[in-house]
Specification:
The protein is of the alpha+beta class. It folds into two domains: 2-60 and 129-133, no CATH class; 64-112, no CATH class. The protein has helices at residues 5-17, 58-61, 64-75, 80-86, 92-103, 106-127, and strands at residues 2-4, 22-26, 32-35, 52-54, 131-133. The strands form two sheets. Strands 3-2-4 form a three-stranded antiparallel sheet, with helices on one face. A two-stranded parallel sheet has the order 1-5. Strand 2 (22-26) and strand 3 form a beta hairpin. Helix 3 (64-75) crosses helix 6 (106-127). It is elongated and about 50 Å long.
């Protein structure tokens, strides 16, 4: 099975945007099924149906905090203390992004986060014997 990276990323982002959503990829057709209370495109595949592979959730990939630490370490280590302070408040991610924007690093962060997510999804696909075509 081959799936386009953009399709896999869009399925992942649908799950990221809706914590009640789940997405699956069909092994033979590369069809994507997304099921949630907000947008129901069909019933969830049966767990016994091995033709469907569930797309990972953000919790399963666990990228956010790891990427934040890696980005700060590699790109803007001088912001380590202010970033640390952001995560001591409510709305930590909003504060973090505002700090990066003020310091001129927000676009760098967005590119870093997107590239890292795509790398993580490619790795996940490899682990599940799914071929990914770059779009």
């Amino acid at each position: 099975m081959t799936i386009h990276l953009n399709s896999l990323e869009n399925a992942y982002l649908a799950v990221e945007d809706d914590p009640l959503a789940r997405a699956w990829i069909h092994r033979d057709s590369s069809a994507i099924r997304i099921v949630s209370d907000l947008m129901d495109a069909g019933a969830s595949p049966s767990p016994a149906d091995r033709d469907w592979v569930e797309v990972p959730t953000p919790d399963e990939l666990n990228l956010k905090s790891v990427l934040m630490e890696l980005f700060v370490h590699q790109v803007c280590p001088h912001l380590a203390l202010p970033v640390y302070r952001c995560f001591g408040r409510q709305d930590a991610w909003r504060s973090y992004k505002e700090l990066l924007d003020q310091q001129g690093y927000l676009e760098d962060w967005q590119r870093f986060e997107e590239r890292s997510l795509r790398d993580a999804l490619r790795h996940w696909a490899d682990d599940h014997a799914i071929e990914v075509a770059s779009a």
